[in-house]
Design a protein that fits this description.
43% of the residues lie in helices and 14% in strands. The protein is an alpha/beta fold. It has one domain: Decaprenyl diphosphate synthase-like (Undecaprenyl pyrophosphate synthetase, 3-Layer(aba) Sandwich). A six-stranded parallel β-sheet has the order 3-4-2-1-5-6, with helices on both faces. Helix 4 links the parallel strand 3 and strand 4. The radius of gyration is 19 Å and the shape is globular. It binds 3-methylbut-3-enyl trihydrogen diphosphate (2 copies) and magnesium ion.
Length: 249
């Protein structure tokens, strides 16, 4: 069977892809099952996309796994998600090691349940020497939280005399964000048909190409990921210029 993979231009790959993994609950409902069944089945999609990204040579893959707003869900669902995270982190480390993938996290991770935080920190530690791809989990993350934290840290540095307010430019500001060591995502994928950003990477996505698909996250497979990359590669990224300026090379 031929794969869409063959149609990807490997010389024009995005270096960073961000994914809003959405639709677990609706997928479960469609199958007459409780929401957590959807979350459990979403793990396979995480594995597929992670492997696909590493195989074609993506350097950074960032997955939105839990937002600061997701704490407002029913307690039972939050608890189930937190323990699913522990199990998944423990089980998937082997795959990450095998594929030479480094695990990283962004978000207020110290406010996660201790067990979840521990499994996460262990995974990060164990994979810290891997260098094929960085897989970042956004956990207890929201962009407004991140921007507020950056503003706070900047204010402190000004107070300490490390920085002058006049020195604060966009490059300085981005150094205070949780993604300071990553390039901005060139492509952001959201599954499940919703067309919004839901507080994900607001600063970093200023010029990101957005890709929305109707597919629910537990059904998202490698081929769907390739389709998103092919769609991205057909677009013209102008960054405020006109078409003739960006094609005249
Ligand atoms: C995404 O699926 C997973 C998380 C937000 C943790 P949802 O749980 O949001 O599924 P829907 O959107 O209700 O279908
Ligand atoms: C966004 O999905 C957060 C994650 C995928 C972790 P939500 O399902 O929480 O987003 P909204 O509430 O539909 O905007
Ligand atoms: Mg949702």
């Amino acid at each position: 069977m031929s794969s869409l993979k063959e149609h990807i231009d490997l010389h024009r790959l995005p270096s960073h892809i961000a994914v809003i993994m959405d639709g677990n609950g609706r997928w479960a409902k469609k199958h007459g099952k409780p929401r957590i069944f959807g979350h459990r089945n979403g793990v396979k999609s995480v594995r597929e996309v992670t492997e696909a990204a590493a195989e074609i040579g993506i350097s950074y893959l960032t997955l939105y796994a839990f937002s600061t707003e997701n704490w407002s869900r029913p307690q039972l669902e939050v608890n189930a998600l937190m323990s699913l995270l522990v199990d998944t982190l423990r089980n998937e480390i082997e795959t990450l090691m095998k594929n030479n993938i480094r695990l990283h996290a962004i978000g207020d991770i110290h406010k996660l349940p201790k067990k979840t935080e521990k499994a996460l920190l262990e995974g990060i530690h164990e994979t810290s020497m891997n260098d094929r791809m960085t897989l970042t989990l956004a956990l207890n993350y929201s962009a407004r939280w991140e921007i507020k934290e950056a503003a706070k840290a900047l204010a402190m540095d000004v107070r300490e005399g490390i920085l002058e307010p006049g020195d604060i430019d966009e490059i300085t500001f981005q150094r205070y964000l949780t993604t300071s060591k990553m390039p901005d995502p060139e492509l952001m994928i959201r599954t499940s048909g919703e067309k919004r950003i839901s507080n994900f990477l607001l600063w970093q996505s200023a010029y990101t190409e957005l890709y929305f698909t109707e597919i629910y996250w537990p059904e998202f497979r490698k081929e769907d990921f390739y389709a998103a990359i092919i769609d991205f590669q057909m677009r013209e990224r102008r960054f405020g210029k006109i078409s003739e300026q960006v094609t005249s090379t």
